[in-house]
Design brief:
Elements: H1 19-37, H2 41-73, H3 77-90, H4 95-107, H5 111-124, H6 129-141, H7 148-161, H8 166-179, H9 182-198, H10 203-231
Helix pairs in contact: 2-3, 3-4, 4-5, 5-6, 6-7, 6-8, 7-8, 8-9, 9-10
Length: about 230
């Protein structure tokens, strides 16, 4: 909350006055200025109430977000969605809540809804690596919303914003895989694994990256076999 105090001070004595009258007027003006400069008890009381409401909102959002994350970890996606929607209703200007909800929709394979939220956030935050990365993933993997060009566009944008993030290289590999460019996909996934190895990343995440690498290698092998058949 912002409290703005605007004090108007008018000056301009043009009629000659006696020294005693001038001194009396100065005292009165000084007292009035001090009274105007200080917020009254009612203003302080209002500020205290507003601050309490803000604290209550923060506690409510923290509870709902933690609850949603717990439900999501347990696979209770619909319950997680309800918690996030309640949080969004309480604070509709909270961009982080919309991003978390979009990530949940990706996990639920509700890619159209995820993309709708992410595109709105991308307009507000065009330099967000996470938003571009998740959009690229949706366009590369989402049933019914796949778009190879948009997948590569957002993946490259995310890479420009964060070139040392393993997750970004992993998404770029998926975008190249969707586009059928298996050589670049393989180089990208190898880069993701290397970064994760050197930074001591989560072994579970590394395993997923390695599974992605195996998928790309299989696709590359099949492609080479078809190319060999064409040559024969």
């Amino acid at each position: 909350m912002r409290t703005i105090y605007i004090i108007f001070v008018g000056l301009g004595v043009v009629i000659p006055v006696m020294a005693q009258d001038l001194a009396k007027e100065a005292v009165e003006l000084n007292a009035q200025a001090q009274e105007n400069a200080l917020p009254d008890a009612g203003t302080n009381g209002t500020a205290t109430v507003v601050q309490t409401q803000e604290e209550q909102l923060a506690e409510k959002l923290s509870f709902l977000t933690d609850t949603a994350m717990q439900y999501a970890d347990e696979g209770e996606f619909e319950a997680a969605e309800r918690a996030y929607l309640r949080a969004v209703e309480a604070d509709p200007d909270n961009d982080e809540l919309f991003f978390r909800l979009s990530a949940l929709y990706i996990r639920m394979n509700r890619y159209s809804e995820a993309i709708s939220l992410l595109r709105a956030q991308a307009e507000k935050h065009p330099k967000s690596m996470q938003i571009h990365n998740n959009l690229a993933w949706c366009y590369a993997t989402g049933l019914g919303v796949k778009n190879k060009k948009l997948a590569l566009r957002h993946a490259r944008e995310a890479l420009l914003l964060s070139p040392s993030a393993a997750s970004v290289w992993n998404t770029l590999a998926e975008a190249y895989y969707a586009a059928g460019d298996y050589e670049k996909a393989l180089r990208s996934t190898n880069r993701a694994i290397d970064i994760l190895t050197h930074t001591g990343g989560d072994p579970t995440v590394k395993q997923k990256f390695q599974e992605q690498r195996s998928k790309i290698l299989r696709a590359q092998k099949v492609l080479k076999q078809f190319e060999k058949l064409d040559e024969e």
